[in-house]
Design the sequence.
């Protein structure tokens, strides 16, 4: 136990602090926090189908949407006519060493982000493309500065 | 003002303890346990757990050996129906529902899942899809389509956030 003692001639005093209740409190608190602790943070990417969102526009006015399609060969990008050709955004980005070139996609899409009104984007993929690749593509498109990026499951 | 004589009840308590542990030979055998270091350890553990706990409640749980894909952009999860897709199959409310091969067998959204989702109350307007990163996109696509066709406009794909690199 914690304690303080002092000897001053004939007068002595002992001060002892009873730490047992404090330890009980701490152990209860530790147990509670261990049970309620979150060890793995989970977020989510929304694929909400808005009436005015990219997926809805894809059905109504597909020519206004930037479509990014993941195929076995790489990224196939369909650029809407509203995007000027001088930006030099490629329509096809082949795979790099067997993997999708997310860095090149992000770099290309950054040119669009500087535009007055960048077009919304819809990401689609073939069935046998990896789910992780699709998520990375959505991530790269958002990192490239596009305001609205949606997953097209059609 | 100096303390000339102090009387503390704690000292009396110690005297009582000495009397109670006096053995047959009349000798006092007391073992003192130093709890200071344990208190220090507990305090550090409490501070660590308090700082690592988030303020936003997490509604999703990981199970069935699912490894989430990592992404930088993500929003906190929202409460709703959770559909877990592992390499073995689809789990609804933590119970096995469909295998991956059965999901891929249908060309479009899975009819069984769609029927089940239609029966769910729409007050939970979110569907959280917790899918393993190694799955083919076709499996997730069919589940998302089934959810949207069942009337759930907001389908969230669970990810593991990574730190934003400068």
Sequence:
């Amino acid at each position: 136990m914690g304690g303080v003692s002092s000897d001053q001639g004939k007068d002595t005093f002992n001060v002892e602090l009873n730490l047992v209740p404090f330890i009980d409190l701490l152990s209860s608190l530790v147990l509670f926090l261990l049970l309620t602790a979150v060890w793995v943070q989970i977020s989510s990417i929304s694929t909400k189908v808005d009436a005015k969102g990219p997926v809805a526009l894809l059905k109504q006015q597909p020519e206004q949407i930037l479509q990014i399609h993941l195929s076995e060969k790489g990224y196939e990008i369909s650029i809407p006519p509203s995007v000027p050709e001088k930006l030099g955004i490629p329509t096809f980005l082949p795979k790099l060493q067997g993997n999708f070139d997310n860095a090149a996609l992000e770099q290309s899409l950054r040119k669009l982000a500087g535009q007055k009104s960048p077009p919304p984007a819809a990401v689609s993929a073939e069935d046998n493309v990896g789910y992780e690749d699709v998520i990375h593509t959505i991530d790269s498109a958002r990192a490239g500065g596009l305001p609205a990026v949606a997953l097209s499951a059609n | 003002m100096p303390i000339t004589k102090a009387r503390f009840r704690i000292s009396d308590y110690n005297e009582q303890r000495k009397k109670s542990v006096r053995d047959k030979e009349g000798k006092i055998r007391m073992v003192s346990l130093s709890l200071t270091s344990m208190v220090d350890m507990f305090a550090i553990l409490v501070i660590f757990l308090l700082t690592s706990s988030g303020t936003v409640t997490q509604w999703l749980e990981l199970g069935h050996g699912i490894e989430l894909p990592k992404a930088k952009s993500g929003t906190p999860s929202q409460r709703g129906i959770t559909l877990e897709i592992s390499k073995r199959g689809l789990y609804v409310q933590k119970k096995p529902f469909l295998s991956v091969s059965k999901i891929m067998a249908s060309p479009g959204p899975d009819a069984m899942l769609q029927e089940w989702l239609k029966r769910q109350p729409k007050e939970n307007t979110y569907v959280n899809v917790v899918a393993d990163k190694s799955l083919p996109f076709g499996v997730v696509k069919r589940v998302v389509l089934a959810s949207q066709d069942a009337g759930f406009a907001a389908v969230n794909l669970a990810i593991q956030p990574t730190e934003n690199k400068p």
Remarks:
- The longest strand of chain A covers residues 2-8.
